[in-house]
Amino acid sequence: QLQLQESGPRLVKPSETLSLTCTVSGGSISSGSYYWGWIRQPPGKGLQWIGTIYYSGSTYYNPSLKSRVTISVDTSKNQFSLKLSSVTAADTAVYYCARPIYDFKDAFDIWGQGTMVTVSS
Amino acid sequence: DIQMTQSPSSLSASVGDRVTITCRASQSISSYLNWYQQKPGKDPKLLIYVASSLQSGVPSRFSGSGSGTDFTLTISSLQPEDFATYYCQQSYSTPLTFGGGTRVEIK
């Protein structure tokens, strides 16, 4: 059974870079030609798609965040990562990694439990 | 960006009630509409994809319909475990966007 687990610092200072990793277990990140995504949810608010990466490295980003976002994949570690630069308090959110059913625009059928990241000095 | 508007933003219902939630897209998205259920402190759970396909393991009391710009999620007989927030999401084009959510509360 495929499982996703986010990890990374829970507290990030303003103007610094938020870095999170999603570890995939129960399967290979490069098998089945799957995509892998990041979604976030500010406290008490709705969901925002950040971006998606193919196992080979092709990426799709939300234009509203594109200038600050980098998503990468490390198949040797069965992980994919998110970097968000120049963070502000508005980037405080629960960050989820998730897998679309198949295509990069598909519904997300497998989610990590999420990790709360606070931007504060 | 395609804007997704859900209504109502919240509703109160009793166990056994039939509940309908609406999602409207700002432009046609064909049938590329998904529904999720989220309970407090938990990750979203996929219920319905491409408007009307029931995700594996989801009870049959959940159903979805619609195409173009107007979609509905129906819970035929509300159960205690269904009290949660529901989100729609379009997968027609990037950026993928979600509705603002509908909170289903106990009456």
In short:
Chain A is mostly beta strands and 121 residues long.
Description:
The complex is a heterodimer of chains A (121) and B (107). In chain A, strand 4 and strand 5 form a beta hairpin. In chain A, 0% of the residues lie in helices and 50% in strands. Chain A is globular. Chain A has 121 residues and is mainly β. Chain A contains no helices and 11 strands. In chain A, strands 2, 4, 5, 6, 9, 10 and 11 form a 7-stranded mixed sheet that branches. In chain B, 36% of the residues are buried. Helix content of chain B is 0%, strand content 50%. Chain B has no helices and 11 strands. Chain B is globular and about 35 Å long. The model of chain B has no long low-confidence stretch (mean pLDDT 97). By secondary structure, chain B is an all-beta fold. In chain B, a hairpin with a 6-residue loop joins strand 9 and strand 10. The interface between A and B is medium-sized, with 20 and 25 residues.
Q: What sequence of helices (H) and strands (E) makes up the elements of chain B? A: EEEEEEEEEEE
Q: How would a crystallographer describe the biggest sheet of chain B?
A: 7 strands, mixed
Helix content of chain B: under 10%
Based on CA atoms alone, the radius of gyration of chain B comes out at 13 Å
- Silhouette of chain B: globular
Distance between the termini of chain A: 39 Å
Low-confidence stretches of chain A: none
In percent, how much strand structure appears in the residues of chain A? over 45%
Low-confidence stretches of chain B: none
Name the structural class of chain B: mainly beta
**Distinct helical segment count of chain A:** 0
